[in-house]
Each structure stands twice: as structure tokens, then as C-alpha cells.
């Protein structure tokens, strides 16, 4: 007998009671195999996989919607989040009223930076004439404020970048005026002449821009750019721009938009220690696509690079609704559906002293060779200044150089000899022109000879032959032991930047021992290592150098033992005599407290004419080391730099 379809679907009250649990307000939650939850789960699984062929869809009017259309629309609505990790779950069982059901689904998006955006959405279903449950498709399923044609988008809000602080807690890096020098291609009448004029002007800036501005690709860039584009050539500090404004402002096609950038007080101010902050490079974006976006400011090198994550903070993130305009370009609607507030960066506090650092930078300003000047506070080892002369951008020669110390190492040798009781400052030690050890001849600078003189005179005049003759008194490892007592080769803890603590010759034969006693052979140091050792002599105890105050170093080294008073006082007296009557007399009239020091001329290859220049010393509470690569003699090159440095310090 034929039974009409509607009659086949009719249910008696008893059947409903048996099949379902009746809840308040006429709602029924069903959980059988053919219930709506099966369709909900299939929908969520298909959404994740991008395949909804197992699910039927209708629109709010009841018209059928092809599954492929739903897949396409979900991808379009997802917009910039289409590839973001998404977790979809059903929250409980659907609630059924006759032939409609409502389920709650949870969407959890993992946004850039690991931020979780979670929300619940209602999913409506209807039971078709074939008893199958179908999803009522509408854009609001993806997010409640979406309508057809909308797109979810991401907007990153840059967090305020923190700064690097000096030892007093004041900002070193702060917003400062800059000028972006650029060209408009359509207005440049003679490209070759323009390149010549700009190059001449840039080279006239003082202090000199290092490395020089590279204009080799400027003609190509101008040719490839749109006629009305702004082709940036270089960004100059305002004070540098003003030096050459009259030369470049009248040039046809030049443009000079102003800006502010986070910069140190001067271009050379502790540049290798601080590093730089620049718009994200292409490699930054390629290597860290989840961390950086175009236009982000990124720390490169030095403390800015090492502590970039701390300084830059956490960018804010907003999920917004975009919509294609009449020309198809996706534009923001101004609707924000989720927001994570930016978290400002945290500052990095250093031990640097602005006055001391400026003095160090100025002292090296005229030096064209690779060079470095490090100053530490005698009392506690705080790094007050770390200046680097010309060289590769970001190269921190002051901390990482590995070079022979030359005669500055006689400070270590003398301390070791006196500590062992081998000599006293008044012991007579001959200083001939040459001294031969196992067939190798050692000589003094310019072949000078002093004859039979007190050891203090050998030290003050930097007599190589006297020290090579005394080397056996130290034994195979005595020099290394003395160096370690002054902090060389030590574990200094975490400075916040890489640093070389030195390597002292040990265990060599007679020739190596003789060479090591005058800072040659296999002994190598950094300027920071020598400054720290000099501070140990001045203080009477080695204190590990430190650069960071906050964040506190993860590893903190312990101070060394108290040095033998009679030994350290003797070396102190002899280092004073270097200035009063020895190789450092140019420093005798420096204002302020007495200057102590030791010159050094270090051979770095088989040609004795090729030498590095050194000077180490202290005045009051400031110990320092000056190094000039291939600088010749310490007295001729390093001492004048030390003088400029000390005269720039307050009395």
C-alpha cells in the first residue's frame, strides 16, 4: 500500500520519548549514528582537509549549495589566515528541534608568534526530505562578522622598541633626526655627473663614513625605477647632512625627506658594541618569516643584534576584515575582530660611560688603520668604553682580536719574575743590543743598548734583551701562571658579547719562552684582555670585566686572588717610570692623576719591520688598552692616541 512521504516521517510521542531525551523548551539532543552530530563532524573534518564532498549544504533559503563552492568560499573568507594552523572541534551534542539542529563548534587559529585566537560559532543544520542532515551554509560560520566577499586579514602593530642604556641608566640609543638622501629619476639630467658629485660630497663628511657610500649600482637603480619614484641613496644623520647640504641640495632630482631613527649620540659611538637598528633586510625576512615583516626594525650586530628579541618586544596583532574594492584590490574595512596588544621591549643596561666612550671614539677618529681602545673601571671591571677604528662594519676588534701583545706583556713578565723573587726593581740586569737563545737572536728596537742597569730601567726603556735573558727564571709555565693571575685565559662569564680572554704561551722550549717574555711567540690577546689585566695590576686583584647590568649575566665569574702586595706595587712603580722617564714620556704632562703605562711594539710575522702598536695603562680609576694594527711602534703611534683619550677625560 502506498504511504505518502510525510506520513512515513511522522513520529508518535512515544517514539520520540524512546529515541531522544526531551529537554526544556521542546529541545531534543540526539546522538544516534544518523543524528546531526555525524554531519557536524564530517563538516569539520572536511573543512580541515579542504574536501567537503561528504557533506550536503543548503543556503538559509533552503536552496542547495555545491560542496565545491563552500570549499572555495571558506578559503576566500579565511584570507591571510588560509594557511594558519586551525583546530576545529564540536562542543557537545547538537540541539534538535523537529527537523532543524544547532551545534556549537570551536575554531582555534594559531596566529604568527604562537598567539591563539579561539571562539565558538553556532552551526545550523536542517534535515532534508531524505532524512539526511545538511549544513546551512553562511559566511558567519567562519566568523560572526563576515559576509560574502569579505576576507580575514592580519595587521601587525609594531611594539615600542626599548633602548640600550648606559651605566647611569640613561638611553644611549634614542630617536635622532636623519635625512634620507634620494633621487627622482625623471629629474636627473646627467647620471654620471650626479654620481661624481654625490661621491665627492659624501667623502667630505667628517668623521668619514666607513665604509664609504657605494654608488656603483645607482645608475642601474635609476634606470629600472619608475620616473617619479624615490630612489634612496643613503640615510645621513642630520649633522652629517648639514655639512654637505650646500653641495647636494641644488643638484637636479635630489630629494631630502626627513625622519627619525634610533641612533647613538654619534655615528662611531661604540658602534661595534651597540650594533645597529635597521629596516628588516631581505635575509631577515627570508630566515625568519614568522618573526619579521617588511618595514620592521631589526637589530644587527652587537648588543642590538644579540638582544634583538628583548629590545624589540612583541608586536601587537590584529585580525581584521578586508573587502575587495571595485578594482579588485583588497582594502581594509576598519573592522577588527581580534587584537593582541603589543608588548613593549625591555631595555638593555650596560656599563658604558658616555664621556669615556666619546673620548675613546675621538682618540681613534683620525686613525686610518684598524685599531681599538678599551677602557675599564679599575674598581669593579666595568667596561666604560670600547671603540673601534676603521674596519669592517660591526667588527669588534676591541673584544675579539687575537694578536700578539708585544712589550706590553712585559707587565705580566715583570709581575711573574718579581712575584717569584727572581728580581726586584733594583736588581741589575744587563741590556745589550742583542741576546741569543738557542741560536735565535733577539734585539732591541733600533738596536739600543743600556748596559748594566736596574731592572726598573730595563722595564721603563722596554729592553727586550733583558727580558729574554730572564725568561728561564719563569720556567716553562711561569708566564702562563702569572697571566692567569691577572685574568688572561680566564672564564669571564657572560659579557653579553663575544670576547677573547687571551692565550699565553706555556710549555715551550727556551726560544719560545724568551719570545713569550716579550709578548711574542704563541701568546695572543685582545685589547679587552690587556685592559682587564692592567686594571688587575692597578687594583691589586683581577676582577672580571663586565658589560651588562640588565639583563644580569647568566654566568658570573669570580674575582681572582689578591696579588702579592710587594710584587704588584713594584710593577705599579715601574709602570709609572715608563711615563716619567721611559718610552711613554709624552704622557707626563697629561692633567689629572698620575698616568701609569707600558708601550708595546709587536711583531706579527717573520718580518721584524711589520709590527702592531700598543699602549696599556691607567689613570685614576680608568685602565685602558690602545691597539693599532700594523701601527709601527707603541711610543710613536699608540701613545699619542692614549694622550688624546686621557686629555678628553674630565680631571
UniProtKB/TrEMBL annotation:
Signal peptide: 1-29
Superkingdom assignment: Bacteria
Annotated segments matching region Disordered: 581-606
Listed GO biological process terms: cell division; cell wall organization; response to antibiotic
InterPro entries: Beta-lactam/transpept, Beta-lactam/transpept-like, MecA_N, PBP_dimer, PBP_dimer_sf, PCN-bd_Tpept
Domain Penicillin-binding protein dimerisation: from-to ranges: 158-320
Localization: Membrane
Location (main, coarse): membrane
GO MF term set: penicillin binding; peptidoglycan L,D-transpeptidase activity
A Gene Ontology cellular-component term: plasma membrane
Sorted UniProt keywords: Cell cycle, Cell division, Membrane, Signal
Coiled-coil residue windows: none
Keyword Lipoprotein in annotation: no
Span of domain NTF2-like N-terminal transpeptidase: 36-149
Residue ranges of domain Penicillin-binding protein transpeptidase in the record: 373-646
Family: Belongs to the transpeptidase family.
Protein name in the entry: Cell division protein FtsI
Organism field: Micromonospora sediminimaris
